[in-house]
Design a protein that fits this description.
The protein is an alpha/beta fold. It contains eight helices and seven strands, in the order E-H-E-E-H-E-H-E-H-H-E-H-H-H-E. Strands 3-2-1-4-5-6-7 form a seven-stranded parallel beta sheet, sandwiched between helices. Bound molecules: NADP nicotinamide-adenine-dinucleotide phosphate.
């Protein structure tokens, strides 16, 4: 048995795989993606490509889903193709893969990346809507007694692609300064929580969406 990872180029996945190699060097890790380096090639813009993975899924007992797609324009300016691609990558292919994985192995443990945008929205409304629906699905999808389905919903992660590719880096910097922690979240912190979820928790943590925002919505004590 081993771990299957999507979005392996994401810094969250990179940090997770590095953490895992240090703590469980014998664990088998395989990746799913569009690039030639992936163990299994699949373009999640096409939901059918998920079906090509079904034969491989029984070999794995853990699935980590780090893929995602954020457009740099609001929904009203996106083409129909962009909106469809976003909903497919962020939601429909994700859920399809989870469904296949839960059917493949009664001991499957799954962690998927949601987003704070799924609670509060985003300039890319399509992305936020897809993440909100993903959060809802994680909450309602019944899992077996030895299965686990958890979603981690982080706020902005400083060192991952969706943040580092942004053109408004001055706003990103300001968000860190204004945050109660005085900084933004790091991908290594997300990886640490994912590791606890997938490898340390006993499994009662399931059908849960865990916000990871560092207290940014807490009220100012001087105004309470
Ligand atoms: N960054 C943040 O601030 C933030 C905040 C909250 C949640 N998240 C979530 O965290 C996860 C990782 O975000 P990130 O910032 O690390 O993103 P990223 O650097 O853009 O990485 C996204 C990953 O998704 C893969 N991917 C995209 N479209 C795909 C497709 N059609 N088929 C297969 N793989 C595809 C990419 O593969 P390629 O290498 O082939 O492009 C890449 O490995 C996402 O689920 C995101 O929604 C991020």
């Amino acid at each position: 048995m081993g771990l299957l990872v999507t979005g392996a180029a994401s810094m969250v996945a990179v940090e997770f795989i590095s953490l895992l190699a240090g703590r469980r060097p014998a664990e088998v890790v395989a990746t799913v993606g569009r690039s030639a380096e992936a163990t299994y090639t699949a373009d999640l813009s096409h939901p059918e490509s998920v079906d090509t993975l079904t034969a491989h899924l029984p070999r794995f007992d853990r699935l980590l889903l780090c893929h995602g797609l954020l457009q740099d324009t609001p929904l009203a300016q996106q083409s129909g193709a962009q909106m469809t691609q976003s909903m497919t990558v962020n939601l429909l292919s994700t859920v399809r893969l989870i469904e296949h994985a839960l059917q493949a192995n009664p001991h499957m443990r799954i962690a998927v990346l949601g987003s704070e945008s799924g609670f509060k929205g985003s300039y890319d409304d399509t992305y936020a809507l897809a993440k909100a629906a993903l959060h809802a699905y994680v909450g309602w999808r019944r899992t077996g007694p030895d299965q686990q389905l958890v979603c981690i919903a982080p706020s902005m992660i400083a060192d991952t692609g969706m943040t580092t590719r942004r053109r408004d880096q001055d706003r990103v910097t300001l968000r860190g300064i204004q945050h109660p922690k005085g900084r933004l979240l790091q991908s290594a912190e997300v990886a640490g929580l994912l590791y606890h979820t997938l490898y340390e928790d006993q499994g009662y943590l399931t059908n849960a969406v865990i916000p990871l925002h560092g207290g940014k919505f807490s009220s100012n004590p001087t105004h309470s």
